[in-house]
Amino acid sequence: VRKLSESVILCAVNTLLVVIVVVLALVELARNPHQKEDTETRLIAADLDFTKALGPATNVIYAYTGQWMYFELMETMDKPSDFPKAFLVTGPFMVTTYLVVALTSYGLGAGEADLVASMRRGPMLRVAALLLF
To answer: I need a labelling partner for 74 at 20 to 30 A (CA). Which of 42, 52, 96, 128 fits?
Structure first.
């Protein structure tokens, strides 16, 4: 693969695999919620302090530091002037998707920072691990 346009099929397959894994993890979490009867879901954890919040916050910042890649994407486009239109569609879609998965996971009691890590051992976890391999 020498050009970005040559990797479209690879990107589509990769995206499909990730979507399947996320759906499997959410289905598994919905079938077997991790919440105990004596726990409650809170908007902000009672034991949250600066150091506990810093790790996840830096993960979010790190996730969005790929903005330099926008210029490479624009360079490969037939009409780079269409980039803002594409971003106006994909940007809100990605933010909405991330929020839905994160809030659903939190609401169902995902016990780990990683959705797949919160899955119980069993066939669903094996399938998810195989798809991510």
So the answer is: 96
The Cα–Cα gap between 12 and 19 comes to: 11
pTM: 0.58
pLDDT digits (tens, 9 = 90+) for 68-103: 667 777 777 778 788 888 888 888 888 888 888 888
pLDDT tens-digit map of 11-32: 788 888 888 988 888 888 888 7
Please check whether residue 17 is in contact with residue 131, taking contact to mean a CB–CB distance below 8 angstroms. yes
d(CA 96, CA 94): 5
DSSP letter, residue 120? P
Rounded CA-CA distance 98/112 in Å is 16
